Structures are given as C-alpha cells and as structure tokens.
Amino acid sequence: MIESKLFRWSSRCSPLLIALALGAPVAAAEEGPLDTLQMHGFLSQALVITDRNDFFGPSSSGSGSLQYTEIGANASLRPHQDFLVAAQVLSRRAGGDGSDARPVLDYGVIDYQLHSSQERTLGLQAGRFKNPFGFYNQTRDVAFTRPSILLPQSIYFDRTRSLGLSADGGSVYAEERLASGTLRVKAGVGRPTTRGLEDQLFSAGMGVNVDGSTSYIGQILYEHGNGHFTAALSAADVNLDLSSRFGNGELNFQPWILSLQYDQENWALTGEYAIRNVSLSGDIRQSDTTGESWYVQYTRRFHPDWQWLVRYDSLVTDRSDRSGSAYQAQGLGPSHTRFADDITMGLQWRVTPRVLLAAEYHHIDGTGWLPLQDNSDPSETKRRWNMVLFQLSLRF
Amino acid sequence: MPALKRFLLLLTLLLLAPFTSADEHQVSLVAHPDVDIRSLTRDTTRAIFAMRQRTWPDGQAVRVFVLPNNHAVHGRFTKERLAVYPHQLQLAWDRMVFSGTGQAPNRVSSQSEMLERIAATPGALGYLEREYLDDRIQVISME
Fold this sequence. Notes:
The complex is a heterodimer of chains A (396) and B (143). Chain A has 4 helices and 16 strands. Chain A has helices at residues 2-21, 26-30, 197-201, 325-329; strands at residues 38-50, 65-80, 83-94, 104-116, 120-130, 166-177, 181-192, 209-224, 229-244, 247-263, 267-282, 287-303, 306-316, 339-352, 355-365, 384-395. The longest helix of chain A is centred in the N-terminal third of the chain and has 20 residues, at 2-21. Chain B has helices at residues 2-21, 42-49, 72-82, 86-97, 111-120, and strands spanning 27-31, 39-40, 63-66, 106-107, 124-129, 138-142.
C-alpha cells in the first residue's frame, strides 16, 4: 500500500518538476505533459561510387566512399496545449574530415500557437529553426523525406549548405484555410548558423573567419484543394561578416525559389526554379554574381512500397557567363566548374515503415556543385562524370 | 455457360457491394466524450490529422490517433473522408517531426485499440468503422 502510494506520488511528481523546469504553467502538469513526449531518430549510410571527380569522400578510387553518414535524434514535448518544445541533434559526415561528424544542435525551438480556430492558425517560434527554403530544406538530412538519395544539388547544394540551412532567432507562421485551399506563410529573422562555411566558401589556406549577421527568410505556400497542387515562393537575405588577416568584408546571399508540385496517388511532378545573388564586398574579395538553378522531377509509385524517379537538374553559377568561358579566359579556373547539368534516375524501396533502401545513378556535365573539399584543385576535375549511390536508412 | 453465370453473379455483387456495405463500413470520426465540439469542417479535420492544428476549435488540446499506413481502414478514412493519400499524410508528419514544427500522431495497431485509447484519452480524436462504435466515445460529424 505504502509502495503504491509512493509510486503514484513520484509518477505525478516528475512531470510536474519537468514542467516547472520548462517554465510551463503548473496546471498543465495535471494533464501529464510527459504523455506528449516523443522521440524520433534516423540513421543513413550511403556508398558513393564515381568514375571521375570525388563526391563525399574518395568516391573515384577503390570500391567507392562510405563517408556519407547521417544520424539524428530528436525529442518534442507539449508542456501546455499551446506550446511545443522540440530539439534535434545531428551528426553528419559527407566526405571531409571524420571530425565533421561531431553532433551539433540541428534545431531547438519553443513554439507558441497563439491562435487556432477552424479558419486559421497563428504561431511564433524562437530558437534555432530550419529555414523554410523550397520544398525540402527543413528536413534535407532525413532520407525518409527525400525523393532521392541526393536532393537536386543545383538548389539544395551541399557544397556550401550552411548558407541557407538554419538560423538562431525568431519566426512567425500563419495558416489560413480558404474555400479553395490552404495558405501558409512563414517569416523569420535571425543569425544564420555558419557551420563549416569557412572551408566551404574559401580555400583552406586563406584563414577567413565567417560570422552570421542579421538575416531574413520568408516563405509563402499555397496548397490547392487537398494538397494535390502546391505552389511556394521562398526568399532570403542572408548576411555574413568575414574577417581575415587581409581585412574584413561582407557576404550577402539573396536567393528566390519558386516551387511547384502536382501530386497524384501514384505519381508526382515537381519543379523548382531558383535565382540567387551572391555579393562579396570589403577588403578580401569583391564580386557580384547571379546564379540560376532549376530542376524537373517525376516520381512514380508503382507499388505501395516502391518508387522510381527521373530528374533533370541544371545549375548556372553566373547568368552573365553561362558557359563559364569568360571565367576560364580570366584564368580563374576551368569553364566546366561554373555549371552542372545532372540527369538522375533513382529507385526507393520501403522494406518496412522503418527501413528504406535506395539506389540512384547520375550523369553529370559540369562540376558547378562539386564540393571543393573533395576536389582541392578545380583544374584537375573532369567535365563529364558519372555517379552511382546506394543508401540504407533506418528510423525510429 | 456456367462461366458466364458466375461472371454475371460476380458483376452483380461488385455493383451492389458499394451500396450494401456503405453504411456498416462507413468510417466515422470519433472523439473522447469530454470534447465539447460536435462537428468539424473537412479542412479543420485535415489540418488536425496532418498535425498542423494542435487544438480543438474551442482551445482544448487534441490528441490524434491513427491506424498503420497500410491498414485498409486508414486508407479509406484518409482517401474518402480527408481526400488525401496515406503517403501524403506520412510525409507531412515526417516533415513536422524532423523540422521541429510538430509531432507525430499516436499509432494504434487495431480498431479495438483505437476504441480503448480514445475512450481513455481526454481530447482524443480518431476514426472507427460503425461496428466498433460504443457509448464510451462520441461521433463527430464532418461538414
């Protein structure tokens, strides 16, 4: 009897303590906020094989590269009906150094839904949030949410991925349910996370230090009817402060992405178009380039657990020099480093709801998004190359 | 001739099937009895099952229960009542869960477990075929 009373006391006491620690109203504890605790995670391991050029490790030598690993775990809790607290830790290696895999805080937010009715929802988020950028950025490292092993690199480039990845700050979101569909708007302000950007943007020897400065991001998304047709426009104004022994400077990144998707029960047609301006000012280097990216992708579910994909993905680093010939003439590097056209064919098999196997083939003309850290000398890269990837993903 | 007869019989059964079974196999939206809301619009129901809306329209926290993606009743409920496909809902949940913008619904493995969990969880929302309904839960009408 005493034991059972003690047990009951402690089981009531612990959610209360946790709720207090989280600063939640005590009343919520009686509903048992711990009942809303959820934990999820994922693990992906890929094998990357290329014939020329290296992608995510020494993929062109031996039997390929196993240096593409993604491991993540998250927890979320609703301490009160209007609040959501969520955080995810991510360990990711994509070539480079083994130390790249050290776990980092991917996101960590407190979300307050201040209004929720039949017609609309309005909320605020504070903390580290993933940028709502195109269709895929917010969950770009989770294989189960991707249509293919690699996202279209022209828009979701992994080469300088931190440029649009996440930010520390605040955001507001609203959802308006109209007669014809649903409108969702999200806008955020914060300091971009700059993880790894030093080595991705500048060659290692330059010793440039990169710091996030106040930046803005916004997305407006419209889902027609039941979500069979979705259109979105995303824009950002990302600012970075650069400092080095040569002096200081600033980098400004302004992407616009138009996203369209038509989704039927057994097939989907997806396309995104992006135009982005990158300007460098200050002592280190001065430049102003506008690049262009787009892809068209068709996915077909030919069995409840099987899907194939075909995609054409195109990147131009500088719209005023599409072929890269002016770049080469100035002696800056081979012309093929300024564009990339990628034809992809892929296959996904959901073996069980928790296991995903995928394979894909890429034929690529150009090295515009080839990571610099895998190919330190651009003049040694080859223009035309092929890549095969296999990936095993697990989730819980 | 017997083959033709059998074919005609099968055809008749197939044609009649949707009418005879429509009522008893209709999937109803069901909730815990403490929920004060009696009806939801389809858009709100869809937003709640997509886990984008976390409260009932009167502000009470909603707890969503679903059957596995490959369960026939889940497929019928999502397609017929919500007009979305199970894989679209799954992707919506994954995108919320792995971006910190929401949570996944509670999974149950059978309709009898659905009934038990909804009867026992304040604010619960789920769905059941008519034959599983009893007086411990209430049916929510969808406008």
